[in-house]
Amino acid sequence: MRRIFFEKDSHKDYLFLLIDDESELDQVYKVDNFTDEMGREYVYNLMGERKNLTEEKLNEHVIPLTNGNYKDFHKDDEVKTPQACIESIIDYYNFDRKLEIFIYVRSKVNP
Asked: Which domain of life is it from (predicted)?
């Protein structure tokens, strides 16, 4: 199991939990709070497993640009859907798409 933090989005921080073995699945729901070296605690909410995320769930957590498109973090461009935005982060890190990838999110600013 690997935890990869993605903090390049201006509105949200994402945490990708890559599961290498099914025996690690019980760890999925234990990942929610992290404390940085300064002692600040960050709470991440589980969005779900990458392959099972719905458009509704993604719209809830992925913020569009002012023109309605989404940031493509892999090609430093724009994409049309929140799913494509998340996939661009996966491409950015070159994650193995065969693995189960669980995605967590936290807001950088309070609404």
From this structure: Bacteria
Average pLDDT of the residues of the chain: 87
Long-range contacts of 42-47 (CB under 8 A, 24+ apart): 42/13, 42/106, 43/106, 44/13, 44/15, 44/104, 44/105, 44/106, 45/104, 45/105, 45/106, 46/102, 46/103, 46/104, 47/103, 47/104, 47/105
Asked whether the whole model's pTM tops 0.85, one would answer no
C-beta neighbour count of 86 within 10 angstroms: 25
The DSSP letter of residue 58 is H
